Fold each of these.
Amino acid sequence: MIIKPFTLYGRRYFIKLELGQSLIFIAIFILCTLLAIWQWNRAEESRLLAAQNNQQAEQKNNQLKLAGHWLEKSFLLDNRTHKGKVGYYQLGLFKPVASNKALLVNLGWLPAPILRSDIPSPKLPSGQQQITLANIPIIKPVVWTSDHWPSPVNKDWPKRIQSIDIERFELAIQQVIEEGYWQLISGKGKLINIFQSSPYLNKHKHLGYALQWLLIAIAALMVGFFSSIKEQVIEAKNDSQDSNLKDKKNDQ
């Protein structure tokens, strides 16, 4: 597709949009923009982790101690890292004594198997338990695909999830869940602590990556635009050919 010609510094140009080239640059622009948004959200997660650290420090001497039991059904929060290794956070549901509502509790991190299709099936302690909890904020990551909740082979639970959705949890287990999100500080079933690197460095690192991807997206758009600008030289060639013909006729 050719857009109406324009003149710049005495020369005529036109924009010619070729389908294949345009699709490539648009795809690069969209991909880099999505990556920039993803890194921006990672920076927001780091900010929330910093707030969580401050909150936990304030609540260290005011932690919640409960007696109750773990429900059998649990969840595995996907794409969680610990010291550079990929894994899951195990989310269990703890029902305190004399309460109709369950608490959503993060028991900690566990490593992921080599094969993506192999979903771990950690066990929760049975019987009456004494645990200590600390309240933490819910961080919702960007989810690029549908969260269809797969489970281990030949098992219905635990469900692998991409984000925390308490309302959906309630529908799945037919149990009312208390608003809030808790970290298991002590008690049976505790896994590796949630890894917390420097939130300040993480936040600014991800903001830097976001800016980098955004600049690449803008650069791709500009390269695609300027590469489609062509100088209009056809008329000039025709004029020169006409003048040559006239000169030949005059010579004859």
Amino acid sequence: MARLTKRRQADTKAIQHLWAAIEIIRNQKQIANIDRITKYMSRVHGMHPKETTRQLSLAVKDGLIVETLTVGCKGSKAGIEQEGYWLPGDEIAYSMQPFSRTATPNKDWETENHDWYCFECHLPGEVLICDLCFRVYHSKCLSDEYRLRDSSSHWQCPVCRSIKKKNTNKQEMSTYLRFIVSRMKERAIDLNKKGKDNKHPMYRRLVHSAVDVPAIQEKVNEGKYRSYEEFKADAQLLLHNTVIFYGADSEQADIARMLYKDTCHELDELQLCKNCFYLSNARPDNWFCYPCIPNHELVWAKMKGFGFWPAKVMQKEDNQVDVRFFGHHHQRAWIPSENIQDITVNVHRLHVKRSMGWKKACDELELHQRFLREGRFWKSKNEDRGEEEAESSISSTSNEQLKVTQEPRTKKGRRNQSVEPKKEEPEPETEAVSSSQEIPTMPQPIEKVSVSTQTKKLSASSPRMLHRSTQTTSDGVCQSMCHDKYTKIFNDFKDRMKSDHKRETERVVREALEKCYNCEEEAMYHCCWNTSYCSIKCQQEHWHAEHKRTCRRKR
């Protein structure tokens, strides 16, 4: 039976600040009482004492901080009960001491079956519990179609409803997902490098279901995903856990958001055309020339500032057309529909300047049309080798992945042959063409350009050229570009390591400094075994207040 319940109420970032305050105070052999905690939170995080008290009270109710009452056994506090706060788990050893008792019993968080925070906004509060999985949602975070209609009925979250959609070919799905995971691994390099990860002792107190990119990759390799929606849900869970543990404004949360956004984009591109998605990642020879099922509409597309260029139509939306150009880099762009002409339009009516890039694009278009006439579609026997293909596609080595059907021979000469179905000889190029119509080898999109899911191929050549020269040129340029790319990545990684080491060293030195017993500032004067002061004023105040009765310094 579905119901609304308050799982937790305290803010996750405030809880981690309170944990740090209690740990630092305890390391100084002091009782972590409300006064010391509020002073620390005000000084370090600028939190008002009232807000600190409120968050501390909520954390105790949530079982994330343990409150204890201890009877003093010596000094001025002998026989007086003092409140103290402990991290979950630390109070067990303390409760074994005499004259101590736990004011609030600790909750058994390991037996929880559901998450504590909304899966959509990642915040605590009154949530709706799913009957099939661990996820919970605020009612306000759900769209109308997913909201609870009747409290007596069972309720399923949006993720569980979407996962019910089955995909036809599980092996094919695993092949596609391997490409996406390979891209996720690139984004996730910096995700857990800032000092805290899933090995942190308090991590599982906040994160109910831990997941990371290696775990997702393992599930893909073992074929455990039943649908693309289930894979997307794990990527969203990674974002959910990162925001909860590191904070919504943290650098890790920004990386996780970008990773999830890229994953959703890859899945959208996969649903748009599976053939294009696979071929652009596997990168066999002439991959852009193979027809898709169903075939893409062929058009002449004109971007602002350039002439018409042959392209495939990927999708249409309102008055815009998403096209992918033939040619060197196969770029994507959104083009207004008035700048689109059917491929059957005579090329001489388009008034284009026939540059080398334009001619290569037309050669590729001609090969694509020949494949269409011959009914030659891409057929791979090694699609289950998705991991090797995914890794090779990331490094842009495009000539060693798959076995390709024999490339058709093309006749030499007739370089200016028209690309229309009717093989007409072109007229002499005597018409005057303005310089603004000249198209470079790689047209730069000026209008709204969609981010292509396919990795750019670093070197491409005309289908009319011999395969040996194509492979030699491609490999040489590829190796040079890869060397520059990975040199830059290594230098960036080394700089980040140096800065992280410097910050960590400063933090350790800062925490190792002794604190003033009276005001918790950096201490300069040592009195006895666990008592130091920042100034003579603090020493005198604490001496007359209580320390002269407990000081252990030999005099």
Amino acid sequence: MSRSFGRLTLLSLAAVWVIWGSTYLAIKIGLETLPPFFMQGCRFVVAAVAMAVFLRVRGHAWPTRPQMRNASMIGVMLLIGGLGMVTLAEDRGVDSGLVATIIAIQPMMMAMWGGLWKVWPNRMQWVGMFIGMGGVAILVADDGLSGSWSGVSLVFVACVSWSFGSALSRRIDMPDGPMTTTFEMAAAAVAFMVLSLVSGESVEAPSLRSGLAVAYLVVFGSIVAFSAFTHLISSVSGPLAMSYAYVNPAIAVLLGVVFSDESVSVNMAMALPVILVGVAIVTNASRPSAETAREEASTVTS
């Protein structure tokens, strides 16, 4: 097997690194006039329906019932337990820098979950993950890191749910290709709408600003980036698939500089190279080889 990544994998990495780094800002803008569960429910209803129609027109077959069930279960773990809790935490005023710092532990959590199937990161992957986390810590060290304990706890719940769902999805029977994303988003859409109804969220007409933010989340945050992540989680190592956790905070800060006239702090100037070094180490240590591919295939099918 070649030790180089294909174009689709490289594009998928770029998508989750850049696009998901921008969704912190988009979610905050959406929450200005929309309640959290309803906002995410609308996002995934539109995205799931659009993808389902597109795939059926292109002739994609429906997955089997077990595959539908598995994809729905993983969708709830990733998008309700993961993204939903992050959205609720941001709605409760948790500082985005603190959210980014906590989320940076997801790759190590996923590595630990992988140990349940006797698949552990190699030494250099561990080194890269710790360096990446160090860079994120430098980046947000002067942010104040304000937030309620309940909100902070929700972010930790999100990390556990997303990382376990990601690890589990690599080892159960899932639909082929983009059908995985479609059913994960459909299950999340239903769950978000139920949560919105049960929690009694009050919905009013959103502002144009919030509406555009949700549209961005539908097209780029859901259809493009989540599809890219689904590809990565099934085709590359766990640490590399989760490396977005280190890059996203840097992207979020850069967007703040561009769109909110924020200045580049000393911490930012120090953190960005550290984060990039960590990602480079994880990426290089994650390049596929014939031996590791055989080992993972043996572990997954055993």
Amino acid sequence: DLLEADVAREKVGTVIHALKAIGLAERGGIVVTSPTGTPFRAAERLERAAPGHPDDAVVWESVEAAAEGGAVPTVSFHVFLVLAVLLAAIAVITDSSVLVIGAMVVGPEFSAVAAVCAGLVLRRPRLVARSVQLLVFSFVFAIVVVTLLALVARGTGLVDLEEVTRPRPNTGFIWHPDRWSFIVALAAGAAGALALAVERSATMVGVFISVTTVPAAGNLALGLAFAEAGEIAGSLAQLGANLAGMVVSGSLLLWFMKRWWPQVTARSEALFRQLS
């Protein structure tokens, strides 16, 4: 048997919880789809009756599913990260801010960071463990690969020590973390967590180009290849500060949304209607 129901996005979580309570998730299946358009009056009545606005609604089952997907190690994830770290290393050598941005956009690591945040808030320790494992292994793998490539470039004379250690006005910040590095990571982590929760994928691009994870990994690979302790230490500090900042702020925001978001959105929607 197939049963379909039109449900306001704001109430999807409540309906799914009720269906799970009667055992439908074990004995049958639950599929949630979002229509591209609802040009009928009943849909308008449903939206008016539901508290809050559909664009602000959070379907926690979808958040968990997205987090589970972000914690899965795949070949494409590792290839993207290797390419991103390679681009970042080239950006360091050429002192190109454009390449730094390109490397940031290519990097896929935020999906795993978001999975850590969701796992902490939803109390899924296995999800947290898988996400951390993916982050650690993928970054180590990418850094090792790019370090080997840098050693080849060094051995063939394609890159020399002076190109790595010379003053770099456009990319020197990569291995010089300061308090703003952590502050930016906090803001980016919160933005990414919010985008995950309300399913605003377009916002993720801004998150990617705000944090210095991939550039730090690229600089670290070069530092290892040329045995530059200062570059290595600075890059590790930058990478750690950015990852920690994103996890802290992303987890705090999702925790806030889990506890108080429905009340906040319902009251805000009522206020917006009065003002309009």
